[in-house]
Amino acid sequence: MKKAILHYRAGPVLRRSLADHPPEGWKVVVIEEDDDATFESQIADADVLLHVLRPVSRKDMERAPKLKLIQKIGVGVDTIDLDAAAELGIGVSNMPGTNSNAVAELAIGLMLAVLRQISILDGATRAGNGWALPPERLERSGEIGGRTVGFLGFGEVPRRIAPALSALGAKLIYHDRSEHKGFGAEPCSLEEVIVKADILSLHLPLTDLTRHIIDAETIARMRDGAILINTARGGLVDEQALAEALTKGKLLGAGLDVFNEEPVRVGHPLLSLPNVVATPHVAWLTPETIMRSLNVAFENARRAIAGESLLNEIRPGRR
Questions:
Q1: What are the pLDDT digits (tens) for 271-318?
Q2: pLDDT > 70 in the chain, percent
Q3: Are 202 and 257 in contact (CB under 8 A)?
Q4: CB-CB neighbours of 129 under 10 Å
Q5: Which residues are catalytic?
Q6: Which residues have CB under 8 Å from 265's CB, separation 6+?
């Protein structure tokens, strides 16, 4: 019997499913991501770590002499010490595509929530002030149709978003290392996307090159009244610069599922702004995503134990 740790605050339905119907030949231990004591004791004899968000350090790996695989449930591997994993002979894989539909849907939801000021309208309606909102407040709303949506990165998620936005009448542009045909989006330079987009949506990995790609200088070149959407990584954005731009009215609003430090702290400047719609890094998180992800994870776990090549293996220097 092999042992896998799911390092994640799983709900009761998933816990029951794993307990009642574990993958054949596997014992799955579910550990909350803030329960360090249990994690340190359980990782000692684990064969596989199913990793979500809590960073995996060299020290974690050194506590696990049997560990063969760190399987990212999702795409971003910036929370894993890849150099340490390579030195210790531990495979690392991610799973592009399994959560793309969920992330795409929330990205569209954030665009609509910011553009139509849904959180503000919801609060005013609940307080009995829905029809008493000042006209200038309602004039800040708008439609996706007729606007230019720009994507930084054009992987699986934006390629799923594009047809929906196109159907709503948006013009689509993107900047990516590769050209992608058949999605109704025009490839552009990085500068063109920044200066032309009414809605700028981020879909990049976090690397040394992309960290704070959205900073004060970049924001200054964006269109007045533009909207920023980030469902990728918080480190892509200089949050202080973003807060200033939102406060001064340079940007109309922002929809953020990710932050530089997570969980985002109470009192964070961005959370006090009415033109920010925030969610707690859950764009990827649906029951459907979890089940797809676990199917991929345990196929990779089987491969790791058997010494076979891994699906979507990540090596140092790759993201």
A1: 999 999 999 999 999 989 988 999 999 999 999 999 999 999 998 754
A2: 99
A3: no
A4: 10
A5: 233, 262, 281
A6: none
CATH number of 100-278: 3.40.50.720
Q: Which is more confident, 70 or 137? A: 70
- Describe the strand order of the beta sheet including 171-175 as a list of residue ranges: 185-187, 171-175, 148-152, 199-202, 226-230, 251-256, 276-278
The owner of tokens 């030949």 is 25
C-beta of residue 70 within 8 angstroms of C-beta of residue 290: no
* Residue whose tokens read 């569209």: 108
CATH number for the segment(s) 2-98+285-306: 3.40.50.720
CA–CA distance, 148 with 162 (Å, rounded to integer): 11
By DSSP bridging, strand 276-278 and strand 251-256 are parallel
CB 256, CB 248: distance < 8 Å: no
pLDDT on residue 319: 45
Name the burial class of residue 300, with classes exposed (0-12), middle (13-18) and buried (19+) by CB atoms within 10 angstroms of its CB.
buried
Structural domain boundaries in the chain: 2-98+285-306, 100-278
Q: Work out the average pLDDT over 73-100.
A: 94
